[in-house]
């Protein structure tokens, strides 16, 4: 082991090692990877399967050499390399596979050919929906809305121990936790008359017990449930709290960011352009109801146009900020055109970044350059591409030039500027167009964040 573990990592490892199925839900940068690897040593797991993100594969490969006392052969599994995966001469094996690959027929068949001592499902929020093929591949397929789970050919069924890890266990709402609970801890879903807890084995019962649901009409014959908030949060926390362990950044000495807004003043013409021909009343109603899909539908291309207007205003605002002493900043965005405006407008300050097309080797070089005190002063992060497994704590300030309707993605991105070595108060600001419907959209997202914090902090 190359590193000395933190006390929270040791307690996290012991928590996992004492359970056949348990979730480590520590916030990002608290040390889940090291804790899980130490836990795998404590149970002397010989064959270990890790499911993670594309960028996380290299992190886990290095992690085992940094945190484990055992020398296990490590394989990065892809459809092209899966045929070469085999244990070492002593029977030890670590296979690391990306979430997109677990539903690939060739990869899934190969993984099902092993009896695994341990499955570590890293970033397990990728399995929040039973309708997704990757969730079915890992946890099985629900029958009759979850009355039973058909898991004979699920990856988890081939694993003696299963530990899901995620810093954002409920990316959108509390129902996101149902698949892992139904697959791994069905006993917790059974009724407990002594505490007046109803049976929530069936997904519909779980949904209506812990979520505020509004039925949305798609057509005369089609209505779907839309979650607009949470309820019975104290019961949820008491009922399922023993399945998971969560520590915040404050628990390990990392101060959480301070959150606020960065209002941007633009011209009346730009405001009219940002709102376009959109139905303002419908947008406001969807925002108040928390209907993120409806918001996306109503806003459509206006989201990109609004982002571009914000980007031009941010360029001008940052020129003043840098002149007043700001050293470095991370700018989060969504649309490529927004990133292009920021890159061109701030080129004089030095710009690096990561988007969905950035190769792995360039990702590391960009982060390394930004981390240098005399390096580029601006880091441009496309929200999903730069939201995990990178350290941007060389900056103490992050602005969301654009936002997304996923609280998970926003939270993950905002925590990139926090770390043990961050001596300054980290500040996260959401850029808004003063006097626009954008303000109502951000209030909608904040309501979802608030519900999730009630059961995770």
Features:
single chain, about 450 residues, alpha/beta, Rossmann fold, 2 domains, six-stranded parallel β-sheet, five-stranded parallel β-sheet, hydrolase, hydrolase activity, P-loop_NTPase, Superfamily II DNA or RNA helicase, SNF2-like_sf
Walk me through this protein's architecture.
The chain is an alpha/beta fold and 457 residues long. It folds into two domains: 7-187, Tandem AAA-ATPase domain (Rossmann fold), CATH 3.40.50; 255-456, 3-Layer(aba) Sandwich (Rossmann fold). The protein has 16 helices and 17 strands. The strands form five sheets. A six-stranded parallel beta sheet has the order 12-17-16-13-15-14, with helices on both faces. Strand 9 and strand 10 form a beta hairpin. The chain is globular. It starts with 6 loop residues before the first helix and ends with a helix. The mean pLDDT is 89. This is Superfamily II DNA or RNA helicase. Keywords: Hydrolase. InterPro entries: P-loop_NTPase, SNF2-like_sf. One of its GO terms (molecular function) is hydrolase activity. One of its GO terms (biological process) is replication fork processing.
